[in-house]
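note to self — DONT lose this again. spent like an hour looking for the file last time. sequence + predicted structure for the chain T wanted, 162 res
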Amino acid sequence: MKPFASVFLLLLCLGISCKSPHNDNENTVPVVVVEEDTLPAMHAMVTDEKADFIKSFYNEYVRETCREDGSRPDMKKVVRIVEKYCSKDLLIKTLGADYDVFLNTQDFDASWLDILEIKADPTEESWYMVSCSYDDSDKKKHIETRVKVVPTDHSYRIVDIR
């Protein structure tokens, strides 16, 4: 079921279950009415929050792993960044890979953050496409990674990557 439809049904159920059989004002719970045309905007707001979360992860991750001064990244900081944004299962899954699974490449230039695109994947709920296209010598190259983001109690977590 689409997320905005789920929100609508939840609000509708809450409105019905919260009505008091009595008419006195003490037991009356206000019913929130959500116009159907506002539901796509609510869905877009959640989608934007998830995209912002992904963007924050990549900003922190790339700035630490692709240092401008050319020094080696502090792996303790990299692990802390991954732990902050990703599930423990994903962290374990990514250990030992011979390439950067979050960037889907061996080499990444920090300046590419400016052209990094994050879009909701229309084919699968909670999945996002993280990509950028750049010129490498005479060739146009494209990097693409899919990440799955789910809500937690207070924020979001990246739980899978392809």
